[in-house]
Design goal:
Blueprint (H helix, E strand, L loop, with lengths): L2 H14 L5 H9 L5 E10 L2 E11 L5 E11 L9 H8 L3 H8 L6 H17 L5 H9 L11 H8 E7 L9 H51 L1
Antiparallel strand pairs: 1-2, 2-3, 3-4
Length: 226
């Protein structure tokens, strides 16, 4: 394992704002000598979260470097009042652990009991039209995401993403900067969605005005004929 390469990659991650456990994460990934690998990080912004995936590839002389990172801003999910109690029960379950067991991980008695609770909870959740909303809230970004009903629609409703490349001789865009950029893009997306509704309202208003004018004209014509 090339120690200078490890230090360089640590510095790269540090320039993005990721410093905690990065050396251990890099060593664990590189020890298997993959052609490429990814490291995941998370930052919170109020009730929102931003998920980062940094991509590494093996280059010349078997040295690794960062190509880019993907940032996904996930907005806080607005849970309907009638689902608040289910929301608290969903939060109490370790879904990542259950997902790991689902894919062949170690299972013990405690996990088995939690799986039973999860099954009962999901059965209740299926009776709600927006039950998949809580699934998205707790399963997005995990191995369970693939089984969320209408996951694509929910991701479009609550997420926005951007890929940021490392450019030679230029300082990288930090994680904080990327998160602010995505928050700005989200605000722009919402503004554009509202703007799309305006022409319809204007068109409807113009149509009503035209009908009113035609009605008045018909009345005037009828009066003139009499």
């Amino acid at each position: 394992m090339n120690e200078k390469n490890i230090e360089m990659l640590k510095a790269r991650l540090g320039s993005l704002g990721f410093v905690e456990h990065t050396e251990a994460m890099l060593r664990c990934a590189i020890c298997f000598l993959p052609q490429q690998f990814q490291l995941a990080f998370l930052l919170n912004s109020g009730k929102d979260s931003c998920h980062f995936t940094v991509h590494f590839v093996k280059g010349e002389k078997d040295l690794y470097d960062c190509l880019y990172y993907q940032a996904v801003l996930r907005k806080a999910v607005a849970v309907p009042d009638e689902m608040k109690e289910l929301d608290m029960r969903m939060e109490a379950i370790d879904w990542k652990q259950l997902a790991a067991c689902k894919d062949g991980g170690n299972i013990n008695e405690a996990i088995g009991k939690e799986a039973l609770q999860a099954a009962l909870l999901l059965e209740e959740l299926s009776s709600f039209p927006q039950g998949n909303l809580l699934q998205y809230k707790y399963w997005a970004g995990t191995a369970l995401e693939a089984i969320i009903d209408s996951a694509g629609l929910l991701k479009n409703q609550y997420e926005i993403s951007q890929r940021f490349y490392f450019v030679e001789d230029q300082p990288p865009i930090s994680a904080d900067e990327a998160m602010r950029f995505l928050q700005s893009r989200w605000a722009e997306k919402q503004a554009q969605a509202k703007q799309k509704l305006l022409p319809k309202k204007t068109e409807s208003s113009n149509s009503s005005t035209t009908k009113l004018l035609l009605k008045r004209k018909r009345r005037q014509t009828e009066r003139g004929n009499h």
